[in-house]
Amino acid sequence: MLVTNFANVTYLTGFTGDDSFLLVTRDKDILLSDPRYTEQLEEECPGLELAIRNSGIKMGDFLGKVIRQAHVSRLAIEALSMTVSMWNFLETIVSRVELVPVEGLVEQLREIKDRDEINAIRDAIECAQRAFAVIRASLRNGRSENEIAHEIEHQIRWFGGSGCSFSPIVAIGPRAALPHAVPGEQQIGESDFLLIDWGARNRLYVSDLTRILVTGRISPKLERIYGVVSKAQEAAIELVRPGAMMHDVDAAARNVIAAAGYGKRFGHSLGHGIGLEIHEGPRLAQNEFRPLKAGMVVTIEPGIYLPGWGGVRIEDDLLVTRNGCEVLTTVPKELADCVID
Ligand code: ZN
Ligand code: ZN
After folding, report:
1. Which one, 41, 140, 243, 326, has the greatest CB density within 10 A?
2. What is the rounded distance in angstroms from the CA atom of residue 8 to the CA atom of residue 99?
3. What is the mean pLDDT of each run of 10 residues along the chain (341 residues)?
4. How far is the CA of 158 from the centre of ligand 2 (A)?
């Protein structure tokens, strides 16, 4: 198998650079990389057989050579990351090797986290939560979404993270109606509440949370919408255990929101796996007919988005345990806890 997805290469070898592929054969693994990485490779994956491509040799030619030397007759190709041009090139340069497109082989392994991975995720959560506590305490009228987003990144690094796990979403008032709002110049004080969706990266693994913060008064509408989203999240969390079907967990939250009359205002799936990447398997979605398994770490993040008014999403990270689940994220989320005085 030729592993071309960089996150999969990292997962299988521990190597954190990019532009490198892993060839897995029956008797050995070979990491194809270039001289920029030789020293890093020795540090991160000592003992792994390397094939280093010198400048002046094209990646395609180099790949062809290594594949021919490995004497394989069939080669699995990661269809989700192989480019059309690389595929065409391989077909001509190793014409005697049968190329077999496959999907999700390594991704499936990545869905189940081992103890080290879970600990790394716990640390990424801790880091994100400490940063959030500082942000919360520093919110003042006049602070803009951009400033808050910048401060989140700063605090995450201050608390030992290697950065944000994705560009933080800081959305004040009506901007929160956009599930993936880009921070802008809106300021605290221009609306009664804001939504923050953020996470940290720590030792390669990530966290992902969303909270609402109330900087003005709790309007009856906010109270109602928040209550529905909160109930939807509880209903879903209640179901999370090994064997629970992913689409059923999604439906548990979706039904609560639909019953309240906001079914069309929850346009995304309920959650996703987190790990080396911020969005990875499994997907908790209406069309995902698979059971949850112990060791999966997923987000549960129902939301209601009302154009012109704003949106409410509550997002936590859960570990599927042998008997049920553990909610790993602990930032308080009763609406009264979200009020900043
Ligand atoms: Zn998120
Ligand atoms: Zn998420």
Report:
1. 41
2. 19
3. 97 94 94 93 94 89 92 95 93 93 97 98 98 96 96 97 97 94 94 97 96 96 98 98 98 98 97 98 97 98 97 98 98 96 79
4. 23
Residue 261: give the domain boundaries.
112-338
Q: Phi first, then psi: what are they for 63, rounded to 5°? A: -60, -45
For ligand 2, the distance from its centroid to the CA atom of residue 210, given in whole angstroms, is 8
Residues 98 and 132 placed together within one structural domain of the fold: no
Q: How far is the CA of 79 from the centre of ligand 1 (A)?
A: 27
Whether 287 and 178 map to the same domain: the answer is: yes
Distance 47 CA to ligand 1 centre (A): 37
Alpha carbon of 58 to ligand 2 centroid (Å): 38
Q: How far is the CA of 27 from the centre of ligand 2 (A)?
A: 39
Residue 35 DSSP class: G
Q: Which residue's entry shows tokens 């990661």?
A: 78
Ligand 2 center–CA 166 separation, angstroms: 10
pLDDT the model gives residue 263: 97
Instruction: State residue 122's pLDDT score.
Output: 98
Q: Are residues 157 and 88 in the same domain?
A: no
In a 3-state reduction of DSSP, which class is residue 129?
A: helix
Do 106 and 126 belong together in one domain?
A: no
Ligand 1 center to residue 15 CA distance, Å? 26
As for how many domains the chain has, the answer is 2
Nearest-ligand number for the alpha carbon of 166: 1
Closest ligand, as measured to the CA of 164: 1
Residues 6+ away with beta carbon under 8 Å from 168: 148, 149, 152, 153, 183, 196, 197, 198
Tell me, yes or no, whether 318 and 262 share the same domain: yes
| pTM tops 0.85 | yes
CATH of the domain at 290: 3.90.230.10
Ligand 1 centre from 211 Cα, in Å? 9
